[in-house]
Amino acid sequence: MTRPLVISDCDEVLLHMIGPFSEWLGEQHGIDFSLAGNEFHKAMTRRDTGERVEAADVWPLLNGFFDNEMHRQFPIAGSVEAIAALSENADVVVLTNLQDHRADNRTRQLADHGINLRVFTNQGPKGPALQAILDEYAPSRAVFIDDLAQHHGSVAEIAPHVDRLHLCGEPRIAPHIACAHEAGHAHARIDTWDHALPWLLERLHGETGENQ
Q1: Terminal CA-to-CA distance of the chain, rounded, Å?
Q2: Which of 2, 63, 70, 152 is the most buried (most CB within 10 A)?
């Protein structure tokens, strides 16, 4: 009999990203980061001019961070322990929106924090990538965890039988991002691992139910 499967995002689910990224922006580029709404590309302001960073400059900054500064990232509270608990009775993998050449660095980065998981990289909506993982593992049941509502929408469309948990472990941005649960694309919205772990274990091993 196949095992249950957990498919988890990394940034803001397993590891903090915005905090280390914003610190690096300030230290190395004189840029302040403040997410006051749901638009990431409008959150960066140059200190010397007060001007917003142009959208065309956002991706080079993100690429620079992921190429050279991933060592700054550190675990979301409770994530290491929760992944260990989930791994006792389920397969657990990471589905992260990074370019494919960064897969090995992400794998090592997580392992350095005690999270030893297989990493799948992806660009764009996560539904098709998740379906490919399901095809490979053929799990008895599956749960998807991500911090961004659009990925829950993509998974809900392609694999509606997969349970979906919207979890954003970074309190600086959690209030500002669209909620997949409110949109009807996630079964729950839980932003702390202490509360998420019991829900996940019930979904993996309890009776299946309707959206909560």
Answers
A1: 27
A2: 152
Instruction: For each of the domains in the chain, give its residue range(s) and CATH number, in order of start.
Output: 5-16+74-205 (3.40.50.1000), 18-72 (no CATH)
Task: State phi, psi for 85 to the nearest 5 degrees.
Answer: -65, -45
pLDDT score for 207: 57
Label residues 41-61 b or e (16+ Cβ within 10 Å = b). Answer: eebbbbeeeeeebeeeeeeeb
Q: What is the pLDDT of residues 65-89, one digit of tens each?
A: 999 999 999 999 999 999 999 999 8
Q: What is the pLDDT of residues 115-148, one digit of tens each?
A: 999 999 999 999 999 999 999 999 999 999 999 9
Residue 207: phi and psi, rounded to 5, are -75, 140
User: Using CB atoms within 10 A of its CB, is residue 40 exposed (0-12), middle (13-18) or buried (19+)?
Assistant: middle
User: In angstroms, what CA-CA distances link 45 with 30, 72, 73, 171, 175?
Assistant: 9, 21, 22, 21, 20
On whether the pTM is more than 0.90, the answer is yes
